[in-house]
Design a protein that fits this description.
Radius of gyration of chain B: 24 Å
Radius of gyration of chain A: 24 Å
CATH class of the largest domain in chain B: Alpha Beta
Shape of chain B: globular
Shape of chain A: globular
Number of helices of chain B: 8
Strand content of chain B: 25-35%
CATH topology of chain A: MetI-like fold
CATH superfamily of chain A: MetI-like
Order of helices and strands of chain B: EEEHEEEHHHEHEHEEHHEEEEEEEEEE
Strand order of the largest sheet of chain B: 6-7-8-3-9-10
Structural class of chain A: mainly alpha
CATH class of chain A: Mainly Alpha
Largest interface: A-B, 17 and 23 residues
Distance between the termini of chain A: 26 Å
CATH topology of the largest domain in chain B: Rossmann fold
Number of strands of chain A: 2
Strand content of chain A: under 5%
Helix content of chain A: over 70%
Order of helices and strands of chain A: HEEHHHHHHHHHHHHH
Largest sheet of chain B: 6 strands, mixed
Oligomer: heterodimer
Helix content of chain B: 10-25%
CATH architecture of chain A: Orthogonal Bundle
Strand order of the largest sheet of chain A: 1-2
Number of helices of chain A: 14
CATH superfamily of the largest domain in chain B: P-loop containing nucleotide triphosphate hydrolases
CATH architecture of the largest domain in chain B: 3-Layer(aba) Sandwich
Structural class of chain B: alpha+beta
Number of strands of chain B: 20
Number of domains of chain A: 1
Number of domains of chain B: 2
Chain lengths: ~300, ~375
């Protein structure tokens, strides 16, 4: 292998090393440290002026204390579990909403498709934060939704949606919907329509052709979309903070509070490391799915 | 090219007592203001291998899709086995189709692809494996039953598609450009396999193709289509030998066309005056020919080429060799006549190339018999 090729392959690895592995190492180290009232707010810090002795002392001071603490206070594992539950349910809801949209897009006349695609992507042109704030205006007790429902007479008292898990689900489904739609649309769009005709020709009704042919063939898109929603939803912080109020427990929020309210960086780091470990599993599964698709395409 | 083993000539279309399996009566199909099929009447008989031949956009695929039930006629009726097909969806027709793209289900194995239609039929569950096995044997795919479509070759995929469409033993099998994706050699081999399978199963086949050689090879009858109309329906030999129009003559095979003015003669012959100072061409009069504008059509292989003026022939012209297309077994000579008309003559290369009798710029004589060519109206 010549130098140019090595360099070319080396650049992304260098990128990963600098922007992923090194920060990970730092966070991991902080998670093994102890809380201290200082700048930075933890000990020990590596002091090379004491030479070999200093390095040994540095490593001796690191321990798993913070991880043990996480298992002792039930706030943390409840937050993890609650996050998992919210992420799973909202992924499922996003799939329910997203699949018909993707299907409709793929079945639309070809000249309409770029426009529909545009409409799906369009919200990304506005700040995510502003869009979540906008939902407060819609969902709050005096919000547009309640006003509409009161005006039509469907309800007589405003619904309490804000600061409930429902608001969080609405927020997550709304925000991550494009991540579900686009991969599903991609698989449906490249599906050969003659497959459905063949199924019909061989005795399937249209409905059963959907279950036997369309759905299995869009599986890879469903899996990809689900992971693309599940992974960020699990660590989501902004949506539960703004829409979920104090009643919604999510690990992203706990993490933020440990870092910025408590200023307990070591515990916050430990929370982050555990969250990462939980996420590694779906990420690996996602990669496996992608690899399998590429093989099938080849 | 028809199998010689057939005891009697297979020609149900000549028997007035025979009822056709498929009837098109005044069928028209319009997409918006575009008329894809224009008032077509057709009769296709049981066990026929019927080819719909025409250039792309002539309506042959639409015609087939109406048989399968994917399109409904705008006007007219289609009956299959005496039953009006109006309003009957594809999944309730005893018609199966082999798609141009094969449309194999990529997530199912070869076995499951073939069993797909059977599982949705009334066939008892225990009988399905037996039938699938039979189909695998028929198409020589036993070894590939467990593979997925992307794990087999193009030719094997084509056979899976055929096996799948034959599995339900349909009354009628539709083949949409079935061999288009195969290379020339495999295509030829598969054509004979198709004929073989058609004969073994006794199924009526309707094949759509734009490849005239393919249509000629496999079909019992060929319907030549153009612009949504059927121009001629006949056996391959008759389509080739006695085309009813210049369009058909030109579409099928290689042909020389000479336009001129026709006069009718005795014994079914006609004469064509075609150029100043040239003797008239004598040819067989086409059906319905009347005096006036006409075209003389003759196949290159029916035109003889010689260095000396042949004796005792009516149709003799002199020209100079302009070009030679060497095709291995035969050569096509492009001969320029004095008035500039180019005429093709074919001769078998039964000598080695180095001893070929004619070469570029040679003065040669072209001749043909009185009945070799046709004089067609228009």
């Amino acid at each position: 292998m010549n130098l140019a090729r090595r360099t070319l392959i080396g650049i992304p690895y260098l990128w990963l090393l600098l922007l992923f592995l090194v920060p990970f190492g730092i966070i991991f180290k902080i998670s093994l440290s102890d809380y201290a009232v200082s700048i930075p707010p933890y000990t020990p810090t590596l002091d090379l002026s004491e030479g070999w002795q200093g390095i040994r002392g540095f490593f001796a001071a690191l321990d798993w204390e913070n991880y043990v603490f996480l298992t002792e206070d039930d706030l943390y594992w409840r937050a993890y579990l609650s996050s998992l539950k919210i992420a799973v349910i909202s992924t499922f809801l996003t799939l329910l909403v997203g699949y018909p949209i993707a299907y409709g897009m793929a079945k639309a006349a070809p000249e309409w498709r770029p426009m529909l695609m545009m409409l799906v992507i369009l919200p990304f042109w506005t700040s995510f934060l502003i869009r979540v704030y906008a939902w407060i205006g819609i969902l709050s007790n005096e919000g547009y939704l309640n006003q509409l429902l009161l005006w039509t007479g469907i309800i007589s008292d405003p619904l309490q949606i804000m600061n409930t898990p429902t608001a969080v689900y609405i927020g997550i489904v709304y925000t991550y919907l494009p991540f579900m739609i686009l991969p599903i649309y991609a698989t449906l769009e490249r599906m050969d329509d003659s497959l459905l005709e063949a199924a019909e020709d061989l005795g399937c009704s249209r409905l059963s052709a959907f279950w036997i042919i369309t759905l299995p063939l869009s599986r890879s898109g469903i899996i990809a979309g689900s992971f693309l929603v599940f992974i960020p939803a699990l660590g989501e912080f902004v949506i539960p903070s703004l829409l979920g109020g104090s009643s919604t427990l999510m690990i992203g929020k706990v993490l933020w509070e440990e870092f910025f309210s408590n200023r307990d960086w070591p515990v916050a780091s430990a929370v982050a490391i555990i969250l990462l470990l939980i996420l590694v599993i779906p990420i690996i599964l996602f990669q496996k799915n992608q690899e399998k698709n590429q093989e099938a395409d080849a | 090219m028809k199998p010689a083993a057939k005891p009697a000539e297979f020609a149900p279309w000549l028997d007035p007592n025979e009822t056709p399996l498929i009837r098109f009566d005044g069928v028209t199909k319009r997409f918006g203001d575009f008329t894809a099929i224009d008032n077509i009447d057709l009769k296709i008989y049981r066990k026929e291998f019927y080819a719909l031949l025409g250039p792309s956009g002539c309506g042959k695929t639409t015609l087939m899709r109406m048989l399968a039930g994917f399109e409904t006629p705008t006007e007219g009726t289609i009956t299959i086995g005496g039953q009006d097909m109006k309003g009957i969806p594809p999944n309730r027709r005893e018609v199966n189709m082999m798609f141009q793209s094969y449309a194999l289900f990529p997530h199912l194995t070869v076995w499951d692809n073939i069993a797909f239609g059977l599982k949705r039929s009334k066939m008892a569950k225990e009988e399905i494996p037996e039938r699938v096995k039979e189909m695998l044997r028929l198409t020589r795919l036993e070894k590939f039953a467990k593979r997925k479509p992307h794990q087999i070759s193009g030719g094997q995929r084509q056979r899976v598609a055929l096996a799948r469409s034959l599995a339900k033993a349909p009354k009628l099998l539709l083949l949409d450009e079935p061999l288009g994706a195969l290379d020339a050699k495999l295509r030829q081999q598969t054509q004979f396999e198709l004929m073989d399978i058609q004969e073994k199963t006794g199924t009526t086949f309707v094949i759509v193709t734009h490849d005239q050689e393919e249509a000629m090879t496999v079909a019992s009858r060929v319907a030549v289509m153009d612009n949504g109309k059927v121009i001629q329906v006949d056996t391959p030999a008759r389509i080739y030998e006695t085309p009813n129009s210049v369009y058909v003559a030109d579409f099928i095979g290689d042909v020389n066309l000479i336009t001129g003015n026709a006069t009718l003669k005795d014994e079914g012959l006609a004469a064509l005056s075609w150029a100043e100072g040239q003797t008239e061409i004598i040819g067989t009069a086409g059906e319905g020919l009347s005096a006036g504008n006409a075209t003389f059509v003759i196949r290159p292989e029916k035109v003889a080429i010689s260095a000396e003026r042949p004796e005792g022939m009516n149709n003799v012209v002199q020209g100079r060799i302009h070009d030679i297309a060497y095709l291995g077994n035969i050569s096509t000579y492009h001969v320029a006549l004095p008035d500039g008309t180019m005429m093709k003559a074919q001769a078998a290369n039964n000598r080695r190339l180095s001893r070929r009798s004619f070469t570029w710029e040679d003065e040669v004589w072209l001749s043909w018999t009185d009945t070799a060519g046709l004089v067609l109206a228009g």
